[in-house]
Design a protein that fits this description.
single chain, 371 residues, alpha/beta, TIM Barrel, 2 domains, 8-stranded parallel beta sheet, 3-stranded antiparallel beta sheet, 15 helices, globular
Length: 371
């Protein structure tokens, strides 16, 4: 089996569910968080450390790997798993969000996207078919269709036009993926429609006709208020097929993940744990810590007394502050190790609470903290 999914248990208090995704590179227990390894690496973390944390899946990016070192080179070197020496699962994002992020460098048409490389200004064109060919060369366990991500705010007319284009692109991606004689894994569609619930439902209805292996919710966490994001999710999630994995793209904080699991989502990715780590913002059981603050200059306590990662077992807050203020490379490594550990541990505890049918208690305590 190249790709499969099954729900193992549903929580009695909410829509949270325990599941497993089957891939050629191992099973992934869900709900799951995917550390972001944009350019075939999670910045500053060796693969052995991620394996020791029982990380089952990483996210890499088609757009960035296409530009450097090039998908054809990766294919000649045996595919992305062999190239980066990672024998567990990989999801490749199609690059739609990255193209969206460089709006001044691109032009969108029915055929695809013409853009200039942020690296050297060279001109490139990616059609839906080309994006799938690149991902086939990378050979991930999960590939994403090409979509157009709308900004916030955008008008209803703009959102409707964009989601219709994204659907036609998804059709072309599905067709190209299906024509391959050697499909490496599953293919996921992406729901668009900005903050308009009826457009989100229309996008989902179209994607359901394509018999995709999973459904992602895209186009959120792009500037909209958080309560608006959750309104969109609460509207669309009950309509998602229960037999397919549900993936929320680019979200969010640890508390966001708990709330989203309660709504029935299975997969997440976000740059927050790694990017914030490099900027000295660390997630702990006591809340966020900005390690550069002078208050930690002589603080001999571990970063998080409830965390068992190497950073917390061995080093003090004072030392971590010193590394950050001094600009030492080790700062990014130790901070990132802690933040990624915190996220993966959060997901492990979520899975265990669903297994024990106690997730509702955790959700209730989170609601009390927000009030």
């Amino acid at each position: 089996m190249r790709f499969g999914f099954e729900v193992l248990k549903a929580d009695s208090a909410c829509a949270a569910r325990l599941g497993v995704i089957h891939t050629e590179h191992g099973d992934i227990e869900t709900p799951a968080f995917m550390p972001v390894g944009t350019a075939a690496t999670v910045k500053s973390l060796p693969h052995e450390w991620l394996e020791a944390l029982d990380c089952r899946i990483l996210l890499s990016n088609t757009y960035h790997l296409y530009l450097r070192p090039g998908h054809e080179r990766i294919a000649r070197l045996g595919g992305l798993h062999r190239f980066m020496s990672w024998n567990r699962a990989i999801l490749t994002d199609s690059g739609g969000f990255q193209i969206f992020s460089h709006r001044e460098l691109r032009h969108v048409s029915e055929e695809g996207v013409r853009f200039r490389s942020y690296l050297d200004g060279s001109s490139h064109f990616l059609s839906p078919e080309r994006v799938m060919e690149i991902q086939l060369a990378l050979a991930p366990d999960i590939a994403m269709v090409l979509d157009e991500c709308t900004p916030y705010p955008c008008s209803r007319a703009e959102a409707e036009k964009s989601l219709e284009l994204s659907f036609r692109w998804a059709e072309r991606c599905r067709e190209r993926w299906g024509k391959s004689a050697s499909v490496p894994g599953g293919i996921f569609g992406i729901i668009q429609g900005s903050v308009y619930p009826d457009l989100r439902h229309a996008s989902l209805e179209g994607l359901m006709r394509l018999n995709l292996d999973g459904i992602a919710v895209g186009g959120l966490s792009v500037g909209e208020p958080k309560d608006v994001m959750f309104e969109v999710l609460e509207s669309i999630l009950p309509a998602l097929p229960p037999e397919r994995p549900r993936y929320l793209m680019g979200v969010g904080t640890p508390d966001d993940l708990v709330r989203c699991v309660a709504l029935g989502l299975d997969m997440f990715d976000c740059v927050l744990p790694t990017r914030n780590a490099r900027n000295g913002c660390l997630f702990t059981s006591e809340g966020r810590i900005l390690i550069k603050n002078a208050a930690y200059a002589e603080d001999e306590r571990p970063l998080d007394p409830l965390c068992g990662c190497l950073t917390c077992r061995r080093f003090s807050r004072a030392y971590l502050r010193h590394l950050y203020v001094a600009g030492e490379y080790l700062s990014a490594t130790l901070n990132t190790l802690h933040n990624v550990t915190f996220y993966l541990d959060t997901m492990h505890r979520i899975r265990e609470s669903i297994r024990l049918d106690s997730f509702g208690n955790w959700l209730e305590s989170l609601s009390e903290r927000r009030e």
